[in-house]
Specification:
By secondary structure, the protein is of the alpha/beta class. It folds into two domains: 11-113, Formyl transferase, N-terminal domain (Rossmann fold, 3-Layer(aba) Sandwich); 119-223, 3-Layer(aba) Sandwich (Rossmann fold). 30% of the residues lie in helices and 22% in strands. It contains six helices and nine strands, in the order E-H-E-H-E-H-E-H-E-H-E-E-H-E-E. The chain has helices at 23-33, 53-60, 76-87, 106-109, 132-139, 174-197; strands at 13-18, 41-47, 65-67, 94-97, 116-120, 143-150, 160-167, 201-204, 207-210. It has a seven-stranded mixed beta sheet with strand order 3-2-1-4-5-6-7, sandwiched between helices. It has a two-stranded antiparallel ribbon with strand order 8-9. Helix 4 (106-109) links the parallel strand 4 (94-97) and strand 5. Helix 1 crosses helix 6. The structure holds 5-O-phosphono-beta-D-ribofuranosylamine (GRF). 5-O-phosphono-beta-D-ribofuranosylamine binds next to helix 1, strand 5 and helix 6.
């Protein structure tokens, strides 16, 4: 089953879907290890690419790592059904997309209503879709950033939870900008996950309300 045993409270049991390096996953695992993510916990990590380095990060942290190659399924729906079945024993009640390079259909999203979040490397709605950093550089913007948002059926279109701006200086290339954006994401994604678990984030239509945490000892506090 999905939804854990707390269907009406805030989500606490987060599964992370990944496809690649997993630096955002690592930021979550590091904070979980030191107790900073509580009351959120990372209960499973799943990748559509079995060779993803992110799976090794999960294993190293003692978190169940699920490898499901989407190419071995006849359809997007069949892959999502298998993904849901593989996650079910871990009873996640929310999903973090952290560099997960597959579009999810309403079939998967419907299992976690308003409980799937994604991090995107631009200030949405600018530069949605693939290659957001390259798009920003090509356009010539001097400020870009990252967006953590709820996932709906559109690509990078769901309600925005939090954003952080990142400057682009003359001569910066994609590698430099990506590193700058990822540093911002590595703080923002865990902060959103924790705020969700603390029940401080609500959503009415497109408008997301975040109640400030107010912990003065928390160096990571962004929300
Ligand atoms: C992140 O920068 C995120 O914005 C994008 O994919 C990247 C994943 O990086 N969706 P990592 O795998 O977490 O290092």
């Amino acid at each position: 089953m999905t939804g854990g045993d707390r269907p009406h409270g805030p989500p606490r049991r987060f599964a992370v879907l990944v496809s690649g390096t997993g630096s955002n996953l690592q930021a979550l695992l590091d904070r979980a290890a030191t107790g900073v993510l509580a009351p959120a916990e990372i209960v499973a990590v799943a990748s559509n690419r079995p060779e993803a380095a992110a799976l090794d990060r999960a294993r190293a942290a003692g978190v169940p790592a699920i490898a499901l190659d989407h190419r071995s399924f006849p359809s997007r729906e069949a892959f999502e059904d298998a993904l849901l079945a593989a996650l079910a024993p871990h009873a996640p009640d929310a999903i973090v997309l952290a560099g997960f390079m597959r579009v999810l259909t309403p079939r998967f999203l419907g299992a976690f209503p308003d409980r799937v979040i994604n991090t995107h490397p631009s200030l949405l709605p600018a530069f949605a879709g693939a290659g957001a950093i390259e798009q920003a550089l090509a356009y010539g913007v001097t400020i870009t950033g990252c967006t953590v948002h709820f996932v709906d059926a559109g690509v990078d279109q769901g309600p925005i939870i939090a954003q952080r701006a990142v400057p682009i200086a003359p001569g910066d290339d994609a590698t430099i900008v990506r590193a700058r954006i990822q540093a911002a994401e590595h703080a923002l994604v865990p902060a959103v996950v924790r705020a969700l678990a603390q029940g401080r984030i609500s959503c009415e239509g497109r408008r997301v309300v975040v109640v400030p945490g107010g912990d003065p000892d928390d160096a990571d506090q962004l929300l």
